């Protein structure tokens, strides 16, 4: 289904979803948020899609936040619904059993940083700037940023970033563990393509198990997390892909995983 504010591209089991409002630095207005939700549902229910990449159109921005013009016009009731809708989208992304990679090609501010934080892996171009500048607008993050940043970097840095609203460089984001890798902007696409293609070729049950064990394990006690790991490990061992992966190792060849 075509979208007004998103571009969709499929390649080698990798679906790239590009937020496409470059004249507004890809800001998330209500329509774009709804379209992103639909696009994520489509990608997660399409069996040919093994990996999802999220990025922004143009050279300047990943996503520069929620649409400030729309926020200004909202009543408190509408704002509550907007925040819930944004949080639902971010939680949906984080809970997917397919890896979602944020290719952060510029400003990732406010809702843009929150979108990136909900992804499983984050690759940033060296010109990217990440931040939660809501405080400068007299508001606060509303799409899960206070919670996901806190869990990623701890109270000290989460409060510093949220209270000052000052964006950080890609390099600083790497030092804090907010992003996985920083690359030159002209290498972002090829780096993300390499990573996503290799993840798309991995055994899907193993990928699903790792995503669930790490994501749910982060929110539970150690013994519950370990029990989950054991259950998912056993499930992997019931797959043909396990036979293929271990056999390929012993036969000194490359495995060909079939998702069975
Ligand atoms: N919502 C709505 N419009 C936005 C936007 C947002 N979050 N971020 C940028 N835009 C729009 C600008 O209003 C401008 O539109 P115009 O050309 O119609 O005036 C266009 O995108 C380009 O932005 P501009 O501010 O001119 O670019 P810049 O290079 O001077 O500055 C930023 C870039 C990212 C520093 C600046 O746009 C900015 O601070 N954006 C808001 C970030 C923010 O507070 N996000 C959290 C929102 S809750």
Describe this structure in words.
The protein has 260 residues and is an alpha/beta fold. The chain has two domains: 195 residues, Alpha-Beta Complex (2-enoyl-CoA Hydratase, Chain A, domain 1); 47 residues, Lyase 2-enoyl-coa Hydratase, Chain  A, domain 2, CATH 1.10.12. Helices cover 50% and strands 16% of the residues. The chain has a six-stranded mixed β-sheet with strand order 1-2-3-5-7-10, with helices on both faces. It has a four-stranded mixed β-sheet with strand order 4-6-8-9. Helix 1 runs parallel beside helix 3, helix 3 runs parallel beside helix 4 and helix 5 crosses helix 6. The longest helix has 20 residues. It is globular and about 60 Å long. The two termini are 29 Å apart. Bound molecules: coenzyme A. Coenzyme A binds next to helix 2 and strand 6.
Overall tally of structural domains? 2
Structural class determined from secondary elements: alpha/beta
Bound molecules: coenzyme A
Regarding CATH, which class of the largest domain? Alpha Beta
Strand runs, count: 10
CATH architecture level-2 label of the largest domain: Alpha-Beta Complex
Give Rg in angstroms: 19 Å
Overall spatial form: globular
Strand content: 15-25%
N- to C-terminal separation?
29 Å
Topology-level CATH name of the largest domain? 2-enoyl-CoA Hydratase, Chain A, domain 1
CATH superfamily of the largest domain: 2-enoyl-CoA Hydratase, Chain A, domain 1
**Can you list the strand order of the major beta sheet?**
1-2-3-5-7-10
Count of helix runs: 11
Low-confidence stretches: none
**Helix and strand pattern:** EEHEEHHEEHEEHHEHEHHHH
Mean pLDDT: 97
Largest beta-sheet details: 6 strands, mixed
Percent helix, as a range, is 40-55%
């Amino acid at each position: 289904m075509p979208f007004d504010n998103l571009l969709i591209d499929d390649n080698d089991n990798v679906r790239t979803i590009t937020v496409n409002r470059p004249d507004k630095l890809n800001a998330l207005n209500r329509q774009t948020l709804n379209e992103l939700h639909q696009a994520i549902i489509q990608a997660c229910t399409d069996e040919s899609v093994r990996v999802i990449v999220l990025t922004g159109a143009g050279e300047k921005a990943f996503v520069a936040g929620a649409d400030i013009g729309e926020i200004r016009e909202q009543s408190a009731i509408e704002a509550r619904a907007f925040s819930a809708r944004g949080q639902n989208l971010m939680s949906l992304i984080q809970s997917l059993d397919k890896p979602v990679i944020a290719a952060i090609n510029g400003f990732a501010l406010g809702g843009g940083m929150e979108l990136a934080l909900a992804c499983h892996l984050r690759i940033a171009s060296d010109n990217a700037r990440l931040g939660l500048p809501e405080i400068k607008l007299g508001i606060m993050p509303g799409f899960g940023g206070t919670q996901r940043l806190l869990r990623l970097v701890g109270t000290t840095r989460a409060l510093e970033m949220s209270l000052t609203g000052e964006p950080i460089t890609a390099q600083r984001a790497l030092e804090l563990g907010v992003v996985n890798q920083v690359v030159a902007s002209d290498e972002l696409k090829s780096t993300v393509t390499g990573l996503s293609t290799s993840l798309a070729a991995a055994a899907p049950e193993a990928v699903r198990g790792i995503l669930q064990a790490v994501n749910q394990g982060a929110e539970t006690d150690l013994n519950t997390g370990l029990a989950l790991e054991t259950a998912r490990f056993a499930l992997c061992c019931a797959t043909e892909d396990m036979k293929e992966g271990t056999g390929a190792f012993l036969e000194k060849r490359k495995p060909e995983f079939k998702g069975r």
